[in-house]
């Protein structure tokens, strides 16, 4: 809905407001002419109608009644120069949303418009829906992922509930989408709710919706995600985070295929396929009494477990190449691929953030390498100490200096006394080598702060190193 206010009053009644309205990009029209009002309302639907009371003109009351009851303008507010309880009651009985005393204040209107935007569910609720998921590309040759995919494909056409488990970033949502597009519901909506992201009372209204007036701030009724997903798939992400009370309602919704909006008086039938994901061991959670067993069994009809990336062997290389290609295209950078060391590093790394982490690292490496081969150093930057010069400068130059000083690692014998300064330089070089130029990690190894390391490097530069 557009941010459009219709004022039914004389222009003088709102003259003081016009500056604020314009500055805040609120569109508005002012008229008292019935024909004009009709023609405006035929073409546009205002988010708010403000009507000036006219105690001596019964037409005004009829107009309010018509707009509210026949045309369904819920957000119609009457304002008046008279603080009359009787007039207020009259309009409220006719269905006006509120009764305000002149002068109109922009802050009051604005609060209302902001609320209107926030609860304008039709629009923002649909933003969450990926209306059409064309393709889902799932890369992987390892037998564990092949097995998971085969299972997903097999169960996709049925309406069976699927529980996808796996560590963070292993592709749970991707598999959920894959199931959706391979199901009979592919043309229906795919709606995802992250159960961990919302406080419990909000999550409840998000899932089941509410009727106008169900709680303070429920300015109008709002369908829940169950209703929005009707005919399609509802993804309940991080299901373990739903509290016990809400679990009972969820169980009922899944079993009975109907939901109750908050403050609603009758149940609403919903036709959704449920896919849930978890990165916890839900069974253990049940044993600990944190998750209802009956709900667990309802959800776990088809369990799909996604392996962590570190258990997927050479898939890490396949995925890395896939992301390399993707980001090279995205940024228009021709890369020369990965160096052997980089490939080995990827094979050895434990990938706690799984595929998402790999994707992020490759994206960053593509940008940093700027067309050269991707090396380990392009992966090992620490966001908190991003320092580009260390990539190409410090390590090599310091090594040069080390050679000049004839101070190789093998030459250090600890029963031999060497100048502390030299020892320090040597240790700095070693730490940078070990951490592939990462200053944060190097500083940690040296037991000094990054700032101190930086100062020491600056000093070395002053001493003649060409950095
Ligand atoms: N097999 C795969 N092939 C290609 N891309 C993948 C694959 N698996 C995951 N991805 C990509 O990795 C990223 C993380 O995947 P996704 O969001 O599905 O993980 P998740 O398990 O839901 O993570 P979380 O637990 O953090 O919610 C996404 O960008 C996804 O497209
Ligand atoms: Mg996810």
Describe the structure.
The chain has 467 residues and is of the alpha/beta class. It folds into four domains: 115 residues, Rossmann fold, CATH 3.40.50.2300; 163 residues, Rossmann fold (3-Layer(aba) Sandwich); 68 residues, Helicase, Ruva Protein, domain 3 (Orthogonal Bundle), CATH 1.10.8; 78 residues, Homeodomain-like (Arc Repressor Mutant, subunit A, Orthogonal Bundle), CATH 1.10.10.60. It contains 22 helices and 14 strands. The chain has a five-stranded parallel sheet with strand order 2-1-3-4-5. The chain has a five-stranded parallel sheet with strand order 7-10-13-6-14. Strand 3, helix 4 and strand 4 form a beta-alpha-beta unit. It is extended and about 105 Å long. The two termini are 58 Å apart. Bound molecules: adenosine-5'-triphosphate and magnesium ion. Magnesium ion (MG) binds next to helix 9. Adenosine-5'-triphosphate binds next to helix 9 and helix 17.
Quick take:
The protein is α/β, with parallel strands linked by helices and 467 residues long.
Features:
4 domains, Rossmann fold, binds adenosine-5'-triphosphate, 467 residues, five-stranded parallel β-sheet, Helicase, Ruva Protein, domain 3, alpha/beta, 14 strands, binds magnesium ion, 22 helices
Mean pLDDT: 83
Distance linking N and C termini: 58 Å
Structural domains: how many: 4
Radius of gyration: 32 Å
Bound molecules: adenosine-5'-triphosphate, magnesium ion
The number of helical elements comes to 22
Shape: extended
Instruction: Give the structural class.
Output: alpha/beta
> What is the percent of helical residues?
40-55%
Per the CATH scheme, the topology name of the largest domain is Rossmann fold
Q: Which assembly state applies to the chains in this document?
A: single chain
Strand order of the largest sheet: 2-1-3-4-5
| Beta-strand residue fraction | 5-15%
CATH architecture term of the largest domain:
3-Layer(aba) Sandwich
């Amino acid at each position: 809905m557009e941010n459009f206010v219709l004022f039914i009053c004389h222009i003088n009644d709102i003259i003081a407001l016009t500056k604020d309205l314009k500055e805040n990009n609120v569109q508005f029209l002012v008229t008292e002419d019935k024909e004009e009002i009709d023609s405006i309302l035929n073409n546009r639907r205002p988010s708010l109608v403000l009507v000036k009371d006219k105690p001596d003109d019964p037409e005004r009351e009829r107009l309010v009644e018509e707009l509210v009851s026949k045309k369904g303008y819920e957000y119609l507010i009457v304002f008046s120069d008279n603080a009359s309880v009787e007039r207020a009651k009259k309009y409220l009985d006719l269905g006006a949303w509120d009764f305000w005393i002149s002068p109109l204040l922009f802050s009051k209107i604005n609060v209302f418009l902001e609320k209107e935007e926030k609860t304008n569910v039709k629009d923002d609720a649909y933003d969450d829906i990926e209306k059409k998921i064309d393709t889902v590309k799932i890369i992987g040759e390892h037998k564990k992922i092949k097995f998971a995919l085969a299972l997903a494909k097999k169960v996709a056409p049925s309406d069976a509930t699927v529980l996808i488990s796996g560590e963070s970033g292993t592709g749970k949502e991707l598999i959920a989408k894959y199931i959706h597009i391979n199901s009979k519901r592919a043309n229906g909506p795919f709606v995802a709710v992250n159960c961990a992201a919302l406080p419990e009372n909000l999550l409840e209204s998000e899932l089941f919706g509410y009727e106008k007036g169900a709680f303070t701030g429920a300015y109008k009724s709002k369908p829940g995600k169950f209703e929005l997903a009707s005919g399609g798939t509802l993804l309940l992400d991080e299901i373990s985070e739903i509290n016990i009370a809400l679990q009972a309602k969820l169980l009922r919704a899944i079993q009975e295929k109907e939901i109750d909006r908050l403050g609603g008086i009758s149940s609403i039938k919903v036709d959704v396929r449920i896919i849930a994901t978890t990165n916890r061991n839900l069974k253990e959670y049940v044993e600990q009494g944190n998750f209802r067993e009956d709900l667990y069994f309802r959800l776990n009809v088809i369990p799909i477990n996604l392996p962590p990336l570190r258990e997927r062997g050479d898939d890490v290389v396949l995925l890395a190449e896939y992301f390399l290609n993707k980001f090279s295209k995205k940024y228009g950078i021709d890369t020369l691929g990965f160096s052997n060391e980089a490939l080995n590093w990827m094979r050895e790394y434990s990938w706690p953030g799984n595929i998402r982490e790999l994707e992020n690292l490759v994206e960053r490496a593509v940008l940093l390498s700027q067309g050269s081969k991707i090396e380990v150093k392009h992966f090992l930057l620490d966001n908190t100490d991003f320092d580009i010069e260390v990539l190409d400068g410090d390590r090599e130059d310091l090594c040069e200096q080390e050679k000049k000083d004839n101070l190789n690692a093998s030459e250090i014998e600890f029963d031999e006394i060497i100048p502390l300064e030299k020892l320090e330089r040597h240790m700095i070089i070693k730490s940078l080598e070990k951490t592939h130029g990462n200053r944060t990690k190097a500083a940690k190894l040296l037991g000094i702060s990054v700032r101190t390391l930086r100062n020491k490097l600056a000093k070395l530069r002053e001493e003649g190193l060409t950095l």
